[in-house]
Amino acid sequence: MQLSTAIKTYVLYLASLGRSPSTISYYRGCMERLQAAIGDLAVDEITHTHLVNFMAEQNFQQKSQATMQAYWKTFKSFFTWCEEELNLKNRPDARIKCPQVPPPEVIPFSHDDIKALMRAAALTNTCRTRGRKSYKMRRPTAARDLSLLMLMLDTGLRVSEVARIKIADVDLFESGSIQVRAYRSGQKSRPRTVYMSKRTAYQIHLYLNERHKPHPTEALFLSAHRNPMDKDSIDGVIANLGKRANINKTHPHRFRHTFAIEFLRNGGDVYTLQRMLGHSTLDMVKRYLNISEVDVENAHRLASPVDNWRL
Q1: How high is the pLDDT of residue 212?
Q2: Coil, strand, or helix at residue 282?
Q3: In which residue ranges of the chain is pLDDT below 50?
């Protein structure tokens, strides 16, 4: 089978597994870039040298290690499929090692950061006019944006999970629970129940009261045009609030980091946190634990009476 045909068939295979459209698009793009580099060869004509040369060229173009690892993962997935479905005998990816990627930097928001973001969500920029005192007004989307910020900070949900929440998934008046829906295969986003504070529930209640007859099947968060907010639109709202608050690197995942570290700082255990975040392993949770333990160590150094009193 020619590579171009194999890629199309492989894409259908990924779709049958319930992979997300973004994952399928990314894998297709990786394989199509390989095809553009080596030509439309038959799958069994692709050699180890083809892949090595392709990876080397990406490196020469100074692609990030994360991108290099993504190519490696794509090739592993594609040629595993070829081996199982096309009876490929000699896998060209067999001796290619996975590029090492440093773990992402975890930078939680500070208390002051959160307060600045809340102000940016609630109020317009300062209005200045001749002969009158400067003033600020409440933003038209204040109730929604405050609800969004508080929910993400309070639950540590992924932005894609927030985008999938329906009004019916939220219990504002009894338990404060939110039913998190898995996405298709459930590989990355696991179904689970998370909980929010009464303050967050109250803010969401205020937001829903502003909407005209909200139906339980509607998305919890709507755009200004009453369309369900997806991952990208929520990203855009958060990024805009970060600019208005003058806080660098403001993105939804930082709320997840902040929730996790604050949970551990306040005595939570790693196993409960793992379940709340929907992680399949403890790897990321252990990184949060290390950060919170460093905080405790630094706090002791600052507060130690033996050190401070020079005993």
Answers
A1: 86
A2: coil
A3: 311
